[in-house]
Write a structure and sequence with these properties.
Four copies of one chain form a homotetramer.
Chain A: E1 3-4, E2 9-13, E3 20-26, H1 36-46, E4 63-67, E5 69-70, E6 73-74, E7 79-84, H2 95-98, H3 106-113, H4 129-147, E8 150-158, E9 161-162, H5 175-191, H6 194-198, H7 207-222, E10 229-236, H8 250-259, E11 264-269, H9 280-283, E12 287-289, E13 295-297, E14 305-306, E15 309-310, E16 315-321, E17 331-334, E18 340-343, H10 354-384, H11 416-421
Antiparallel strand pairs in A: 1-2, 2-3, 3-7, 4-7, 5-6, 8-9, 8-10, 10-16, 11-16, 12-13, 14-15, 17-18
Helix pairs in contact in A: 1-4, 1-10, 4-10, 8-10
GO molecular function, one term (chains A, B, C, D): riboflavin reductase (NADPH) activity
Pfam family, one (chains A, B, C, D): Chorismate_synt
Region (Disordered) (chains A, B, C, D): 397-425
C-alpha cells in the first residue's frame, strides 16, 4: 500500500492539504551519522519554484527529524521525518469539484475510495514524493559511506529533443560506428555527476541539448501546454550479487520503483527497447578479467544486471514521463455527473516536470538498491557462518572440473561465505 | 524473494535439474471450480517445441494438483501445483563449468550464492515460469468467472519488424492522421483474442507482419544467432479502482511483474515512451458519460490507469525482450578464473523466445491484477459496512457544491460503501 | 520490525528522548468519521500520573492528526498521528550509563544495535505504546461502527490477589460447582464495561478484590519495590470467520500482539493453562442452535476460537505482566564493563503497571482483530462474486448427505458467497 | 495466511485428503549440507502410532526433496519438500457431515470459507504440521552448524501430573528454598537432551513423573476420553541480539509460533504467570561478568529475553495444550442445521497428543529463531560496513562517561559493527 521495501521499509504519509507530509523509515542501520543537513539538500533539489521553467510556488519544505537519531547518529530504530504543509486549507470546493481533471487521479480516487476530497487524488500529488526523497537521502548516506555508491540522474529528453542515444541496430549498418556510439554512451554514464547535472537549469549535462530542451519547455509554457520527456539514471559502485532471482529481480524492483513515481509511463534497463533489435551475438556482454580476480564485461548492454542480479558493472535505466496533466488552458470534458462542459484553466502550471523529476528518480533508485543490499547482506552473513565443509564440489567458482560428466569431489576447505565475501570489497 | 503478491500469494520453486518445479498459491478464493483442464492449456502454450521456430525439446509438462481442491472446487486453502522434471541429471560438469555464459546468470548466481550449481543460474531458467503460468491459470479462472476479465498478449515486434505502431507526435504533422492511427491501435486492442493470436505460429495476429517476423526469426536461426522483440498485452473488463495510490500503483505492479520475466529489458504503459513527445493538451484523456452513470474517456493514452488506479478502460502495455543469450555459435569470453577463451556452441537453441513469452506475459498480468483486486475488495467491503453518516460532505461524487469556497454540509445519507459498490457491476 | 498487521498496517516510531512519538496507519477504511476526540480518550487512559498508584509524571500526551482525514472523515490514505515529547533532552549520561539496568533492555539493545543511547532501550519504553493506542482508537472507531465490536480489559490479578478464577478441574470434585464457577466467569465477561473498569483506580471491576489489590500495590510502593499481575480482556460481537487457519490463527495473532507489549510474560486463550487439566468430554463445547439459523456453543472453554477461527462467541484471554524492572531501591549488579557494583535507586517509580496496561491490552486486541477482519472481508467479497455453480456438493452447510459413503451431487444453486454473507450481519 | 517468517519464509500446503502435504522454504542459506536424512528423523518423531499411548495409524510419512539442493548442498533457492498422503479418498460423507464436531474446526471453516469439505477443517489437522516439522529440520541443520544452537522440548505436565515446577512466591515463605527450586529448574533446562526425552514414551525426562503421566493417559484412554498438558522448551546457545524491539519481540514471535500449533491454549516465557507474583527486587536478573568480556545474568527469570531481544542466556517457555477434541465417546451436540442430536463416537483416538507435540514445539521454535537470526545478521552486516567515525559518543558500551550531564566526546575509533561483531562469536 504505502510502504516500499522489506528490510529498508519506507512508509510515506500525507496529501496536499493535511497538516504534514512525511515518512517513517524502518530498518536504518545503526550508527550512521545523520542530520538534517544530509536530507534537506535533496528536498531542495526536488522543490518547485527554482527557475522560470518550473512552477513559481515556493513550498519551503523544511524537514524535521522526529525520531531515530541521537547526538547525530542513527539508533537503528525507525527514523520519522516530517515536512509541514504550509497550505492546510481543506481545499477549494469550486469548479474542481464539478469536474474530474482529465488524466488526473480525481476520478479514479473517487472510484477507489468512494470519497471526494478537496485535494482530488491527494496521494497522487507530487507532494507525496517529499517523503520518498527524504527517506532516500538517509539510504544514500549509508550507501555512500559503506560502499561509495553513486547515483546520478539527468534529463535525457524533453519532447523530441533528446541527448543523442546510440543508433538503432541494423545488420546493414556500420558495426564499428554502432559500437562507438554505445561506447560514448557508457563513457557518459561513467563520468556524469550531480554537479554537472545541477549546473544546468533543465538538468541535462549536455549544454547544447539543454538549450534546445529549454526552448521546447518555453514553447510549451507559451502555448499554455505541457510536455514530457525521459530521465536516465546510472548507479555506480553497487556491490554485485544484489537482486533476487525470481520475482524480485533487481530490474523488477527498479521498474516497480520508477513506475510508482507520478506521471511515469515507461522504464527500460540497459539496452532497453532499442536492444530488442540487436542480435544475440552482438548483445551478449563477453566477460573479461578485471585484474583483481574478478570478471567484468567488455560491453554493457545488460545494464549491469544479469539474471536479475547486479554484476558489478554500472546499472543504468531510462524512465518515461508524460506531459503534466494540469495545463494552463481550458479543456472539453465531462463533470462528475457526466455532463459535457469545459473545465476552465486556472493559474499557471509547470509546463515540464522533468527537471524536478531528477532527484525523485535518484531517490527511488536508492530505495530499491538499499533494500536489495540489506537482503543480500543477510544471505552473505548467514552463508559465511557455515563451517568449512570437507567435500563441497559445487561451492566456489575456483573449483575446476577434471572430467566432463561427473563432479570431482575435492576437499578444498573453501566455504561459501568466504567466496562470497571477497566479491564486493 | 520467490513470492509475488500479498493477498494472492504465489511462491514458485524448482530449477532445471531438480525433481520438480511448481508453485504454492495462497489466497485462492474458496468455491472456484478448478481442475487440471483449467491449468494445462496455458502450460501447453508456454511449452517449447511446438513449431520449427522454437527449440525442439518437448518437455511434456503435466501439472499435478497436490492440494487445495476437493470434488473439483477450491477450498480456499493453499493450492499446490507440481510439474515433474524429466531430466533430473545433476548437470553436465564440462565446459559450461569453465565458462560463465555471457549475458546469462551463471556468473551473477555465483556472486550471489557462492554456489556453482550444474544448472548455472537455475532459477533464472525459463523453466521456473511454469509455476507462474500455472498459478495464473487459477487466477484467470476466477477473474473470468467473477468479472469477465480478458487478458490477451501478442508478439508486437521481432527485431525491427513491428506491428505498425501509432506514428510519433509532431506539432507539424497531420493531427487527424495521428489520432486515426491511435484509434486503430485502440480498436485492435479492443478486439484481439487468444484464438487470433494462436492461429499464427509467431503469435502475431497481423498475418502480413507475422510473415515478416517469421522470416526474421528464420534468418536468426540460419545465422546461429538470436533476436529479440516486444510483446503487447491488453487487459479488458477489469473493474475500476484497482491499484494502490503510492508505491503500488497498478502500472508499478505490472512493471514489476513484467521485468521479473527472464530476458525482459523494458516496460511501457499506455502511450509509453512515444507519449513523452505528445503535449498535454493532446495527451490528456477527456471524460465522457458512458450512459450507465459512469464516466469513460474519449481517448486512452493513459492505458486505462490514472494516478495508479484502473479507470475501467482497457489497460495495455508493452514489454521488451532482448535476444536470447544462448546462441548456437561460439563466443569469445573469459573463464570463471579470468582466462580468455572461446565458449563453444553446443546444441541448437531457440532463436526467438517471443512466441513462447506470450502466455508468460499474460500470466504475470493475471497475477498482478488478481492481487490488486483482492486488496480492493477488502477496502470496498470494509467501507460498505460503515452505517450511513448524517452529514458527509466529502463522500460521493454526486454531491454538488453550492458555492465556491466552502463545503455545503448536506444530509444526503449516501455512504462511501454504496457509492463504491455501484462502481463496478 | 516496527510494523504490525498486513492490511491494517500500523508502524510506530519514537523513543523516550526524541522529538515525538507516533504512528502511521495504512489501510484505514475510507469514510470513517474521525477526529482527535476519538483518539485522545484512550491516550488519556494510558497516561501515567492519574492516581497515587501510578508514577506522578504527567506527560500530557496531546495527539495531532497529521494526515489521512478531511472534514472529519478518513480518506482511505495513511493516517499519521503524532504526540510530541516534552522532555527531549538527549538523556542523562551518568550512572545509568555505567550500569545496564537489570531486566531492562539497556544491555540487549547494546548487543543488538551496537549503540548505547541515552534512553537505553528506547523503543522498549512504555512510551512507544502511545502510537499503538492511538492506532487502535482508529481501529475501534471502525469496529464499533461497522460491527458493534466491544473490547474490554481489566486487571484480574495483582501479585497473588486475584479475581476469583474458576476452580481447577478434578475428577473427584463437584462437577456442578465447577461448571457454575465457569458460568459465573462467562457471565462476568458478558457484562463488564469500560465504565465499570474505570470506576475503580486499580481498574478491577470487583470492588472487594480491587481493595486488596490496592493494598498490595501500596505495600510494594512502601517497600520501594514493584509487583506484577494479569489483565483479562474480552472481545464481544466479533464477526465469525476471522483468523487464518494455519500460522495466523486468531489466537496466534492475539498472542503475538500481547507478548509485544513491554513487560509481558504470558498469554492464555479461553480455558488456557487451567484447561490443560480438563478432560475432553468436559472441555469440548457442544453446539446449540441460536435461533437465527446459526450455531452457538453451550460452554465457551474454547474462548470463542476454534481451529484458529472466531466462532461468534465471546473471545477472552489473559495476559501476564511481570513486576516492573525499575524499582526505587538500589540493586547489586555489574557495570557494562563487567565490574560488580551497586546501581543506586533514583526517583520514584510506578510500583505496578497493571492499571495502565489495561488500555494497551485493549489496543493490541483491536489491532489484531481489525487486521483479521480486513483479510476475511476480502475473501468473503471474492467468494461472493463467483456466479452460482450448477452442481456444488461441497459448498454450504445446509446440504444434507443422502448416503454415507458418496456425495450426492445436487443442483442447489447455492453459492459460497451467499452462505458466507449471511454469517455476520 | 499460510506463510511464517520474513527472511526464512515457510509456506505449507495440504490437508487430510488431498494428494500431498508439504512446504516451500524460501531463504535457506546457500551451502548447507542437506539430505533426506536430516529431515526424516523429526518427521518420524512427529508420526503417530509409535506407542500404545498414541493413535495406532501409521502414516509412514516419507519426505521428498523436490528442489533447492544439488549434490547434497542447498543452493540458496527455495527448498520444496513433499510428503504424499496415502489416504486420498475425498472423505466419508456420513454422520460427520451432519454434525460439526464440537471444539473442532468444522463449523468455523464453514463460516470462514463457505465450503464444507469432507475433511472438515482440513488445514487445522495435525497433518498440516508435517510441513512445519520438515522446514524446521532444515533450519535446525543450519542453526546447529553455524551456532551450535540446541532446542529441546519435553512434556512437562499431563492433566494435573506435572514435573515439579518452582513453588509460587510468597513474602512469608523461605526465600532460600524458593531460589533453590528455581535453580534446580534452570539446571534441568541446561542439561536436558532429546535423547533423554525420547528415552521415555511420554517424552518426559523425569521417569517418576513419566510413570504417573502414563497412568493418567491410560486412564483417559480407558474412559474413552482425552487429556491435555503442557510442553516446556529450552533454546540453548542462541546468539544474543535476536528479536525486534517493538511488535516483533522474540517472545512475541515465539508466542505467535506456539499458538499457531493446533490445540494450544497458552504460552509463557521465563517465569511466566508464576512470575507475576514475584516482586521486582527478586524478579530482576542482576548482571555478572562472564569472564569473556560479556555480561550474563545471575538468575534467569527473564527466560533469556529482555526488551524483546535475546541476551545470550537460555530461552525457555511453556505451551499449554487442551485435551484433544476428538474423543472415543458419543457427544450431545447440534447438527449443522441446528437440530439437537448425538454425534456417535467412531474409531479410537489418541487420548493425549502431548508426546507427539514435542517435535512440533521444537519445530516452531526453530522457525521463529531462524527468522530472527537472519534479520539480525543483515543489521549486523550493514552496521559493520560503516567506516569508523571520528567521534561517536553513543556507540559502544566500553565508553565511560566523565560527568553526569553531558556526553564527553571522545575519538575512540570504535564502530558499531565491531562492537556488534564481538557479541556472538
Amino acid at each position: 500500500m504505502s510502504t516500499f521495501g522489506s528490510l529498508y521499509r519506507v512508509t510515506t504519509f500525507g496529501e496536499s492539504h493535511c497538516a504534514a507530509v512525511g515518512v517513517v523509515i524502518d530498518g536504518v542501520p545503526p550508527g550512521v551519522p545523520l542530520g538534517v543537513e544530509d536530507i534537506q539538500p535533496q528536498l531542495n533539489r526536488r522543490r518547485p519554484g527554482q527557475t522560470n521553467l518550473t512552477t513559481p510556488r515556493d513550498e519551503k519544505d523544511r524537514v524535521n527529524i522526529l525520531s531515530g537519531t541521537e547526538l547525530g547518529y542513527t539508533l537503528g530504530t525507525p527514523v520519522a521525518l516530517m515536512v509541514k504543509n504550509e497550505d492546510q486549507r481543506p481545499g477549494d470546493y469550486s469548479e474542481m469539484n464539478l469536474y474530474p481533471r482529465p488524466s488526473h487521479a480525481d476520478w479514479t480516487y473517487l472510484l477507489k475510495y468512494g470519497v471526494k476530497a478537496s485535494s482530488g487524488g491527494g496521494r497522487s500529488s507530487a507532494r507525496e514524493t517529499i517523503g520518498r526523497v527524504a527517506a532516500a537521502a538517509v539510504a544514500e548516506k549509508y550507501l555512500t559511506l559503506a560502499h561509495g555508491v553513486e547515483i546520478v540522474a539527468f534529463v535525457a529528453s524533453v519532447g523530441h529533443v533528446t541527448v543523442a542515444p546510440p543508433e538503432g541496430y541494423s545488420a546493414a549498418a556500420d558495426h564499428e560506428k554502432f559500437m562507438k556510439q554505445w561506447d560514448s554512451w557508457w563513457t557518459l554514464l561513467k563520468g556524469v555527476s550531480r554537479a554537472d547535472v545541477d549546473a544546468v537549469d533543465v538538468r541535462c549535462p549536455d549544454k547544447d541539448v539543454a538549450d534546445r530542451m529549454r526552448a521546447r519547455i518555453l514553447e510549451a509554457k507559451e502555448a499554455q501546454d505541457s510536455i514530457g520527456g525521459t530521465v536516465v539514471c546510472v548507479i555506480r559502485n553497487l556491490p554485485p550479487g544484489l537482486g533476487e532471482p525470481c520475482f524480485d529481480k533487481l530490474e523488477a524492483k527498479l521498474a516497480h520503483a520508477m513506475l510508482s513515481i507520478p506521471a511515469t509511463k515507461g522504464f527500460e534497463i540497459g539496452s532497453g527497447f532499442a536492444g530488442t533489435e540487436i542480435p544475440g551475438h552482438v548483445h551478449n556482454d563477453p566477460f573479461v578479467a578485471t585484474g583483481d580476480g574478478k570478471l567484468g564485461t567488455k560491453t554493457n548492454f545488460s545494464g549491469g544486471i544479469q539474471g536479475g542480479i547486479s554484476n558489478g558493472e554500472n546499472i543504468y535505466f531510462r524512465v518515461a514521463f508524460k506531459a503534466a496533466a494540469t495545463i494552463s488552458q481550458s479543456q472539453h470534458t465531462a463533470t462528475f455527473d457526466g455532463e459535457d462542459g469545459v473545465l476552465a484553466a486556472k493559474g499557471r502550471h509547470d509546463p515540464c516536470v522533468l527537471p524536478r523529476a531528477v532527484p525523485i528518480v535518484e531517490a527511488m533508485a536508492s530505495l530499491a538498491v538499499m533494500d536489495a543490499l540489506l537482503l543480500q547482506l543477510s544471505r552473505k552473513a548467514a552463508a559465511s557462518l557455515i563451517p568449512p565443509q570437507p567435500i563441497n564440489p559445487i561451492l566456489t567458482g575456483k573449483w575446476k572440473p577434471q572430467s566432463s560428466s561427473a563432479p570431482t569431489i575435492v576437499a578444498n576447505g573453501e566455504i561459501a561465505g568466504e567466496a562470497v565475501e571477497s566479491d564486493d570489497k
